[in-house]
């Protein structure tokens, strides 16, 4: 069977959110496909789709995301458009994706992974260690909040939402003294002017799939499948398979403090994973290796052991 390639007369429709980071990821996907199949830019159409999560009136209120409810907040409208055939493929930050896709859709193509680390960003101090008692750190990530408070209980965390540009403005305005951003996002946006310090995974284990771009398609769309196969990065797939199996086994959403990082060395996969109490008062971590092919099994066993150790109620908020 031959693959039907897109053309200017019949372009491949790439769905994406409209944030600068989402657009950068869509452009990267388009240029990889152009290179792989020697296609012109106008053989592709970038289709921007507004999601519930992009709705400012809904999101910019002071309510934390966990109260609004976040299941598919940034993906539902995009997936609906794909099921209805208004777009052919969709480009996502894998960090924001649930471990299961709706019926009829599949998410098995990953671009080579960017830097997985979090960055410490501040306009007033050089490092976390320099923040004084009671200093405000802006973050809307339950994981980063819990990890920060676990190591630095003398700091305060304030809700900090919006895209990278909005958060940088808040720092400039003194709303907080520091924040965390994914290195991958800063790199993809070319924001080399932002003062940032990459945090090693020993100090802040990243979110599952951080730094990875995934491309979703209709399961029965074999032309798109063949095209995406050409730009898929196998090692990224092996790493995400383990990390996402860990997340799935913990039944976590992005509103649960869970972190994991898989790394490859020859035939070996090393998986580090942790769960924290939301207030940071407790952290349970593991660090194991297995053959790459056994990555998912390793992740499931690790998740089971961490859950056992955590016991019931571990993820409940414990008011001070
Ligand atoms: N949840 C928002 C989000 N989703 C993906 C990224 C960054 C890029 C990536 O991790 O792939 C970000 C912003 C951030 O965490 O700073």
TrEMBL record:
Enzyme class, first EC level, given as a word: transferase
Cofactor note: Binds 1 dipyrromethane group covalently.
Gene: hemC
A molecular-function term among this protein's GO annotations: hydroxymethylbilane synthase activity
Function: Tetrapolymerization of the monopyrrole PBG into the hydroxymethylbilane pre-uroporphyrinogen in several discrete steps.
Porphobilinogen deaminase N-terminal domain boundaries: 12-223
Organism of origin: Lutimaribacter saemankumensis
Record PANTHER family: PORPHOBILINOGEN DEAMINASE
Catalysis: reaction(s): 4 porphobilinogen + H2O = hydroxymethylbilane + 4 NH4(+)
Protein name: Porphobilinogen deaminase
């Amino acid at each position: 069977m031959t693959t039907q390639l897109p053309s200017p007369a019949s372009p491949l429709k790439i769905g994406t959110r409209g944030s600068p980071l989402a657009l950068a990821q869509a452009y990267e996907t388009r240029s990889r496909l152009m290179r792989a199949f020697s296609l012109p830019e106008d053989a592709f159409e970038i289709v921007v789709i507004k999601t519930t999560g992009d709705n400012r009136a809904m999101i910019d209120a002071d309510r934390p995301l966990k109260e609004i409810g976040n299941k598919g907040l940034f993906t539902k409208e995009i997936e609906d458009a794909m099921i209805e055939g208004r777009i052919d493929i969709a480009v996502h930050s894998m960090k924001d994706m649930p471990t299961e896709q709706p019926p009829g859709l599949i998410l098995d193509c990953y671009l080579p992974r960017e830097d997985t680390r979090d960055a410490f960003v501040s306009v007033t101090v050089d490092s976390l260690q320099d923040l004084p008692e009671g200093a405000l750190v802006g973050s809307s990530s339950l994981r980063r909040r819990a990890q920060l408070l676990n190591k630095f209980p003398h700091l305060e965390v304030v809700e900090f939402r919006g895209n990278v540009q909005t958060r940088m403005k808040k720092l400039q305005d003194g709303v907080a003294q520091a924040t965390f951003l994914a290195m991958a996002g800063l790199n993809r946006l070319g924001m080399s002017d932002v003062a940032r310090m990459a945090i090693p995974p020993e100090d802040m284990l990243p979110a599952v799939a951080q730094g990875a771009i995934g491309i979703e398609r209709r399961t029965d769309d074999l032309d798109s499948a063949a095209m995406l196969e050409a730009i898929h990065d196998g090692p990224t797939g092996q790493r995400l398979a383990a990390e996402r199996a860990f997340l799935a086994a913990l039944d976590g959403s992005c509103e649960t403090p869970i972190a994991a990082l898989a790394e490859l060395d020859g035939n070996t996969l090393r998986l580090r994973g942790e769960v924290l109490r939301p207030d940071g008062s407790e952290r349970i971590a593991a660090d194991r290796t297995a053959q790459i092919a056994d990555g998912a099994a390793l992740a499931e066993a690790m998740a089971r052991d961490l859950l056992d150790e955590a016991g019931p109620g571990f993820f409940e908020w414990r008011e001070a």
